[in-house]
Structure formats: structure tokens, C-alpha cells
Amino acid sequence: MNSSPTIFRENLIDMKRIFLLPVFFTLLSAQTFQTVVRRLEESPVGQRQRIVEQYLAAKRFSPIIEQDTLLHFVLYGSAGSVSVNGNLQHWNKPVPLKKTLCGPYSFFYTTFVVPSDARLDYQYIIDGKVTLDPQNPAVTPSGFGPHSEARMPGFVPSPYLQWRGDISHGTIDSIAPTAKIPVPLLHYLVSKRALKVYRPAGYDTLSHLPVVYVHDGFEAITFAHLPTILDNLIAEKMIQPVIAVFIPPVNRQDEYVGRKTERFVKYLTEDLVPLIDHIYKTEPLPSKRAMMGISNGGHISLYAGIRRSDVFLNVGGQSSTITQWLIELTRRQFETNNLSAQMKIYLDCGRFDIKGENPQDDAFDFLRLNRNYSNLLSSLHIPHYYKEVNDGHEWANWRERMPEMLIYFFGRQQ
Question: Is the backbone peptide bond immediately before 63 cis, with ω within 30 degrees of 0?
């Protein structure tokens, strides 16, 4: 068999020339997936090609969704083997697709039952090569390259993600408060870094603006389109105009969840915040500052806010890494009355988030960790917002929830 698979998109061209009647396609499309699979299995190999090509020409795209909760991953071509990996597998263990010979090609398929409102990222592994689903035009970004996307019928996308031409848009400044650190001191100090700063539309006429500090900031611009979200929320008067500071990591692991975490908090609170307050027309109050991040960036947001609620009273983490340090800090700050009663904490996590293959390995079960951390906050009577969604550890998930978080922090109705 050819190692470069011939996929069924190529066959659709010929099928369109042959089957022109809409009624015919409607009848084909109305067949249940299991009916078609059963027909294939019961038919001689030489007759299967026509059956599968007619059915896929009627469906046109994959994955195929039935009855709101049935998700069929399919591929038709000359590949030797096909597997699917993604949120449904927590990106742990690819699931092989069943292979049915159909004349010169093969039909690959597998079925999952998923929540009706799920949104899922996935990739195929075709003859050992990781690739997008060639029959699915829906592609989402990730920190590890593009993924194919499946949206179930009950999934309702946020109305604030699309760029609009009929509203005013903010501007992005680039500032570079950099400092040369001698090599011997790099181990001990936290580097300053170039930043991007969003100024809302009409900035010159505004004053006393809230500020949100965003970790993995440049990715939040590229993958989550956060400036567009801010533009839309402000235009719809869902939030008051805000400034956003997009902070890139220099040493992400050490700064967000490692040995430089305390030093990074000091940089944020004693260096960066005063700088932004000096340059921009901010309201320099803890209640008017927020910090947000995803994954490890969620950890540093929560940690910094719990550690210094005298600087940040609004903190949010999405699919946050929850460390024992954060848990102990939260308990300690509560017991010593160092947490403000006015603090707003936002948490969300996907039910298909990162999860280790060992069920007992809590360190890699993000859903369990975030759920337990929410329970801890509740037991300490610390007000917070917590949400679980049928999604995974993906930018396409996090950007859907960012409007909710910003409204929670800066909503005009509050």
C-alpha cells in the first residue's frame, strides 16, 4: 500500500459528476453510520468501493456526527493504518481506527459517544505520521501546531471571538523595559522582557482604567485573539474599557511553577505594575487589577494573586497547574488573614483536560486538581467562580471562556 494515503476528498470530484440529484444525496445522508458499516461488512470487497464513496460524497466532511452524541472518525484511502489522538484520549494513547478493505482503498473508522455540547481537538496518525484530518476544514491553533476540531451540535461558541468591522478597535503598543543581566546572575534574577500593551479605543479621552495582566501574553494575542475579545466586550458595553498587558515568559517553567516563582512575583508586583501605572492612565488600585493565564500561566496568576492580594484582587486560571506550593500558600494566607474578602478568583477546566495514564497520578490529572482546589477554596469560604466544560487543554477552549472571565472581573453590571 502507498504510504501517502489517497483520501476520499479526491474521490468526491468524480462522485459529484455522477450523482447530481439532491434527493439521492439526501437518501444517502439519511443512512445511519452503522447501517453503512454493516452493508460494507456484508458486501463483497469489490462492491464496497461504490457503497463507501456514495456515502462519503453525501456526507462531504468528517468527523460524522449523529444523534447529537455519536462522533464517527473516518478516513478513506490507501493508508496502511490510521489512529486518532486528541482530547478524548487526553492526548495519551492514540486509538486505532478499524480498517475495512474496499477494493483498491480502505475505509477506516471508529465511534465515540461524547457530550452533546463538547468541542474537541484531535489529529490523525496516518502510517505513523501525525497530520490534520484531511476531510475536516475546521482547524484550531495550539502551542504544538494546528489541530483539527470537532464541534458537537450543542456547542455554543462565544459571540465575542470574531473580528468586527463595525466597531472601534484598540491599539497595541510594544514596549521594551529590558535590562542586561550579567551571566553569573541569571540563575538568581528574573529578566525583564519586551511587552505588548492593549489600549482600548478612545484611550486619549479615558482615564482611571483597570488593567489585566496576561501570562503567555503573545500566544494569547495570536491564538486566543484576546484584543478582539476586548474590543467586542467593550463595544457591547459588557465590560468597562480596560488596558491589557501581554507578558511573555522568559523561562516559563521556572518562572511559572519553579524555582523563580517568588522572584517572578516580586518582578510583577514591584517592577512591572509600577511601570505600567507610570506609563498609562490606570486606576492604581488592587480592585482594578486582574491577572490571568492558562495552564502553568494559570498557576502563576493564582499564586501571585494569593501571595499579593494587596496588588491584585482579580485572578483567573484556565486549566491551571495546581501545585502543592499553591495549596499551602492558599491555606497559609487564609490562616494569617492575608487574603482580602473582596478578592475575585476565576477557575475553569475541561473534562477532557490533561490526565496521566495512571489513574492514581494526581500530578497529571488537571480536572481533579482544579476541582479539588475549588473545593479547598469553598472549605475556606473564599469566594470564587469555578466552571467545568466538555473541552480539553487547548487554546480553542480557553478563548471561549475568556469573555466570561473578563466580565466576571470588569463587568459593567457589577
Answer: yes
